[in-house]
Write a sequence for this structure.
């Protein structure tokens, strides 16, 4: 039942269980890892909104883990990467196997099933850095010893491994927005989706006997509002929108601009082959070798472009628009030192200055005849 | 004139399509095994509550061989339960199958990494032309009676939440304040926190019948029937499962396989939870066995 489909993230055709059938538009998000402080507001916003029911005690559809040591479920990335074996990038494309191409005989996807205990430590490895800090260490970029936070929700992949693996056909990708959902009426609790998702974003509910997952807050999405985890992010690291394929990229579409035009935002483990639709601006302080494994060969260029944002008004403006509204910014423009976000129809949602207005008070308060010293 | 041209063209196109790999994948192999299950007539009430009763164990049994399901991904890579002992009786109104097999572990728990033991009896909806015995084929449905240890335990009152996480701590539910009655409005809220329950998913533990009646028309079209008439009971004892599955011989339900003709076909499937058997990862008979219903 293999079909040949095109995956632009690995720049080649690959095999998938179903034929290529892209939605009319695709939900996408960009997370700026550099800005995240792991306050977990996103995790709790999601938790209180969607997973406060019985049987959902161990579920965090949104989680933030510390890299390199943290993971939820425990060891998901190490196990998935080990299973896949060496992952090689050629000059223009990924030349290794995807999780679909590497599937053993009789399977639809290369997979492993996490153990129950793996779901019990949502914040394992929090704030643990990559190694010991040697005597005499000093600050440089990238840091000699580093860590960063990885924010994770369902990637609402273009080629979802969960959907491919479901023997009941109970998982579907909505044609109107590309959101991947488990039909809770027809899920039979086989947990093939849990095994198949290489990002391990499917959870099992022991009370209902069904698998559950992030629903991209589709009721908000349908009304043009941001998802809970995007809206509540106090670090304003998240930008929500719609992504086009590279050949149809629009320069005034915020997600297209960051992913396709400036190429500062990259998919997580594109080599899995699922074409995930959450993109990350990689952290500039971490080990580039580690980052290349996570985000592919575009990492170095992405970081260089990101570092240059101060001299790139459009990029800077868009980064400042991130998290500035609870509405989905579908178009943007930077003009006269101001970044402006619009709806798809061109109605203005928000505007932010590229530079915060600065007012310098005189050194001396003439009226009171005192100097404004800060003597504390 | 046009019809005379179009018809041969369509016939040729159809023949060409029939030779494609897609078409050959849909051509299911229908295998009829030489064994026959004879359902002995026995007047009176059938023993459905104690599968270990000598009333069952003294009856002659057929040994039915099982092989791994190997036509549809995900396939079963390693064999699990390799044979079943099958007995059957009917009283002219109900037909019951007694299925016994060796299984060192009693698996009924449900959690991320635990799977349930189970067994299924299957019949073709059209006994004159039985389809592929594993899950039927398009417009050639089969009727399954599925018994799962997990559903039986849940029906008997086991909470998988309490079983797996006995020392869990959780804040009180805002909808269920200790010591106070839950209002109907709050009860609806509680239900909505469990989407599968709110939507009436028939597999929810505790609500699903011990023996589920399923109508299947291929692997992707598997429907839990609206009318659930089947009964059953399983007992695990000394490393063996003893399970009775029963259904009425005559039903008006169009999704039930007709058994009123005195003969049909039957096949079996079995799941071993400890080996992560579930869904299509199951052991199955190699084909249909003839079923003769004694009168």
């Amino acid at each position: 039942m293999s079909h040949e489909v095109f995956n632009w993230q690995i720049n080649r055709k690959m095999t998938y269980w179903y034929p290529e059938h892209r939605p009319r538009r695709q939900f996408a998000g960009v997370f700026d890892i550099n800005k995240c402080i792991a306050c977990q507001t996103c995790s709790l916003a999601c938790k209180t909104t969607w997973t406060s029911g019985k049987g959902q005690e161990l579920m965090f559809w949104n989680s933030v883990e510390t890299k390199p040591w943290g993971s939820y479920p425990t060891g998901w990335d190490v196990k998935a990467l080990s299973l896949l074996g060496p992952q090689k990038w050629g000059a223009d494309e990924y030349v290794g196997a995807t999780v679909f191409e590497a599937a053993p005989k009789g399977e639809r996807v290369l997979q492993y099933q996490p153990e129950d205990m793996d779901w019990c430590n949502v914040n394992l490895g929090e704030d643990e850095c990559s190694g010991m800090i040697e005597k005499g260490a000093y600050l440089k970029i990238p840091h000699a010893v580093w860590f960063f936070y990885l924010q994770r929700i369902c990637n609402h992949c273009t080629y979802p491994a969960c959907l491919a693996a479901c023997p009941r056909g109970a998982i579907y990708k909505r044609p109107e927005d590309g959101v991947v959902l488990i039909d809770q009426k027809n899920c039979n609790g086989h947990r093939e989706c849990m095994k198949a998702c290489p990002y391990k974003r499917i959870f099992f509910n022991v009370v209902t006997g069904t698998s559950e997952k992030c629903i991209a807050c589709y009721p908000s999405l349908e009304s043009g509002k941001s998802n809970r985890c995007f809206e509540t992010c106090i670090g304003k690291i998240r930008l929500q929108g719609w992504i086009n394929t590279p050949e149809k990229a629009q320069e005034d579409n915020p997600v297209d601009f960051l992913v396709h035009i400036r190429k500062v935002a990259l998919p997580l483990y594109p080599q899995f082959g699922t074409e995930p639709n959450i993109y990350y601006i990689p952290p500039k302080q971490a080990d580039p070798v580690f980052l290349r494994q996570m985000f592919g060969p575009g990492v170095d260029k992405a970081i260089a472009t990101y570092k240059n944002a101060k001299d790139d008004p459009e990029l800077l403006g868009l980064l400042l628009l991130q998290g500035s509204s609870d509405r989905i910014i579908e178009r943007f423009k930077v003009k006269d030192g101001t970044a402006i976000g619009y709806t798809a129809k061109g109605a203005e949602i928000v505007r932010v200055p590229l530079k915060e207005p600065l007012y310098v008070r005189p050194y001396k308060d003439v009226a009171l005849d005192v100097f404004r010293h800060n003597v504390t | 004139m046009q019809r005379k041209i179009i018809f041969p063209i369509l016939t040729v196109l159809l023949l060409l399509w029939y030779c494609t790999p897609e078409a050959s994948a849909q051509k299911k192999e229908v295998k009829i095994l030489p064994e026959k299950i004879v359902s002995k007539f026995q007047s009176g009430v059938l023993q459905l509550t104690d599968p270990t009763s000598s009333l069952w164990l003294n009856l002659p049994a057929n040994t039915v061989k099982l092989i791994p399901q190997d036509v549809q991904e995900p396939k079963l890579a390693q064999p699990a339960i390799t044979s079943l002992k099958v007995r059957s009786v009917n009283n002219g109104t109900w037909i019951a199958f007694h299925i016994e097999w060796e299984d060192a572990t009693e698996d009924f728990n449900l959690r991320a990494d635990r799977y349930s033991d189970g067994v299924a009896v299957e019949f073709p909806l059209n006994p004159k032309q039985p389809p592929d015995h594993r899950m039927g084929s398009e417009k050639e449905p089969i009727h399954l009676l599925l018994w799962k240890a997990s559903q039986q335990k849940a029906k008997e009152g086991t909470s998988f939440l309490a079983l797996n996480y006995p020392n869990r701590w959780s804040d009180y539910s805002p909808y269920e304040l200790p010591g106070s009655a839950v209002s109907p409005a709050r009860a609806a809220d509680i239900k909505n926190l469990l989407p599968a329950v709110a939507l009436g998913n028939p597999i929810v533990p505790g609500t699903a019948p011990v023996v589920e009646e399923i109508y299947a028309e291929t692997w992707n079209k598997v429907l839990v029937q609206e009318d659930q008439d089947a009964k059953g009971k399983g007992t695990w004892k000394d490393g063996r499962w003893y399970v009775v599955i029963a259904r009425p011989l005559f039903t008006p339900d169009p999704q039930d396989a007709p058994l009123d003709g005195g003969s049909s076909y039957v096949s079996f499937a079995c799941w071993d939870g400890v080996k992560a058997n579930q869904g299509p990862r199951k052991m199955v008979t190699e084909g249909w066995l003839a079923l003769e219903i004694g009168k």
Remarks:
- Residues 41-50 of chain A form the longest helix (10 residues).
- Chain A has a mean pLDDT of 96.
- Chain A has ten helices and 17 strands.
